[in-house]
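HUMAN: Spend a minute on the protein record below and explain its fold to me.
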Amino acid sequence: MDPRFAREIARAGLEVGRVLAGGGAVFAAGNGGSATQCQHLTSELVGRFRDDRPGLRAVSLTAEPATLTAIANDYGFEQVFSRQIEALGSPGDLLIVFSTSGNSPNVMAAARIAQESGLSVIGVSAVGGGQLAACCDFLVGAPSGSTAAVQEDHLTVIHLICEVVESVIFGLEYGPKEVVGLVGLDVAVEQREIWRSEGRTVAWTSGCFDLLHAGHLGVIEAASAEADVLIVGVNSDDSVRRLKGPERPIVPQAERAALIGALRSVDLVVVFDEDDPSRCVELLTPEVYCKGGDYASGARPLPEREIVESYGGRLVFFPLVDGVSTTGRVARHRTGG
């Protein structure tokens, strides 16, 4: 799914959940095929989506033929939904309007009246939203396509909104959970494939991170800005001993990994036993490989460079913080400096 579309659905679901959790009501309006989408949504909210739970206040404004025809006959078709909002809506309620084109006059009229009456408005349309976009607090725009394709996407929107609502209000959970923090390499590879299918780019950086300092933090923060998610590799204790000497690490790998994983810019942490992260990089194929500037010239070995270049990845090197290193701090401590 397009990440933009997914974010819009999530925001809409959270807004529906907020209104319903606060005791508000949800109304839905649309024409033709969109009218059936309204009834589908409200029936899932009043009844249930998957698991048993209390009913939620939701009304489709497309479901009463007598009301619709009376309003259309006396006031005109453009007011068939807005008149019902005037009668039924209250401040703090929510109106969801479905319009494939985004230009349906009666739907826009309902959205305007709803906003004037203190209701929040979610528009479900195609990308851009047409004229409807200006009448909404939230817009969910399906990717461009035929009318049939957009309506199919709207069905997905309905189901995902219901999942978010039931999760927010009742704590019900559906589908796989996105893993975070310290994981094994096999789990990281599985999560990486999920991110790839979602169109999310991955950055990688790695190091010993023994006595975490400002230089480490600078590289990690900069790396996180290069992609949608960041995976950080941490050398194991055995690896650090081989690279730094028998008296290192100062901080054991479990603590080093926990500290890195606690940083809000880090999505996953992987501990590796090899002297370099070549195997991790080969399996994870991050779009962006990040390292400190001391590796940029090639004077320090970087075996994983060829792997990154082989699949078309991008290497980024960040400037170091002058005078800041774990080795230097350990030496000064031991000499009393």
Observations:
- The longest strand covers residues 120-126.
- The chain is about 45% helix and 15% strand.
- Residues 102 and 132 are 5 Å apart (CA to CA).
- The radius of gyration is 27 Å.
